[in-house]
Amino acid sequence: xxxxxxxxxxxxxxxxxxxxxxxxxxxxxxxxxxxxxxxxxxxxxxxxxxxxxxxxxxxxxxxxxxxxxxxxxxxxxxxxxxxxxxxxxxxxxxxxxxxxxxxxxxxxxxxxxxxxxxxxxxxxxxxxxxxxxxxxxxxxxxxxxxxxxxxxxxxxxxxxxxxxxxxxxxxxxxxxxxxxxxxxxxxxxxxxxxxxxxxxxxxxxxxxxxxxxxxxxxxxxxxxxxxxxxxxxxxxxxxxxxxxxxxxxxxxxxxxxxxxxxxxxxxxxxxxxxxxxxxxxxxxxxxxxxxxxxxxxxxxxxxxxxxxxxxxxxxxxxxxxxxxxxxxxxxxxxxxxxxxxxxxxxxxxxxxxxxxxxxxxxxxxxxxxxxxxxxxxxxxxxxxxxxxxxxxxxxxxxxxxxxxxxxxxxxxxxxxxxxxxxxxxxx
Length: 427
Ligand SMILES: *[C@@H]1O[C@H](CO)[C@@H](O)[C@H](O)[C@H]1NC(C)=O
Ligand SMILES: *[C@@H]1O[C@H](CO)[C@@H](O)[C@H](O)[C@H]1NC(C)=O
What we know:
This protein is α/β, with parallel strands linked by helices.
């Protein structure tokens, strides 16, 4: 069911500019899966076993549609009920909760949101009935040493605005689109509180990509709805989107975010992070509010984040002569001048997190890999072959920081210095 729909998105470059981010989700997914399944031996892979023997059966977790959603008016883009997957904690983890917010781009126009409403990123009609929990959500102590026995929740993304849209922005005409991301978030938190989260002693809000951004946007809300004495922190993976121009000098990402904020009424949700003085088109960039978040935050981000390179820095629309065609898919194909541009992107990230780096309670793991969403797969989260900085995996780094074992501010040297990187190859 999903495959034909995604393949219909394959001619990525034929899409209208306004639709490119949505189309690109399809393209990225396809390329991602193709490259994973048909080219597991991509570059920079050390000559070790990339798929460690699975000692635990896959952790398949059933979908639950939210019971609180209807009364709160919390709906996916198409009006269907939102949902989540919940795996109950046990033993020493029974009063600990980790919530993961799913990612998957955004929609910025009526057309792209309408298209999205007919996919699993806009409607629960298309959700999988069960998903595998792995990486930071896994139940195998050898793959997820810190959190394997916690209550683990994956909240599905079906609103298109990082769980932050508002009904006030909906159209009062036949355009049938629900902008209820903020309500989905609030309804599911309510429901989880009733399921035992109100007694939490430890809790983490995390998420990847658009969900990593959502984890930052909602971090203080999460903190404020949990017991005062609970240790609450947030981990944003691949969510630090940068306000940088593309290679043609156009503000592609800024105008895209501006459209998302205006279309879905995200402004009010962002206000909780005290961005009122910031120009509306900039408010969705984490750089603008990460230092205002009161709750401790950990940033996991690749300095050569492939999603940002392919959509923020070198979107297909900015590569008309296709001179970047190979390099944006595989870093080894980049020439010296392109590498310079990519190092410049890394410098922009360093500048953007400069002040956050001074934070006493914050933590970070910024590797120099061509990667994106590194906490959700065992091979990048915690395995004998996963990326390391100072010989520590992401799981060990997040664990050291969360459990206050030591401060963690890990910043990798520039590409290609880190041989443990899992660099994606999309060619
Ligand atoms: C509904 O209103 C919006 C905003 O005014 C407009 O862009 C859209 O085309 C309208 N839809 C219909 C079906 O009239
Ligand atoms: C790196 O860590 C592993 C275990 O996590 C350890 O076996 C190895 O000796 C460490 N290597 C160095 C160079 O410290």
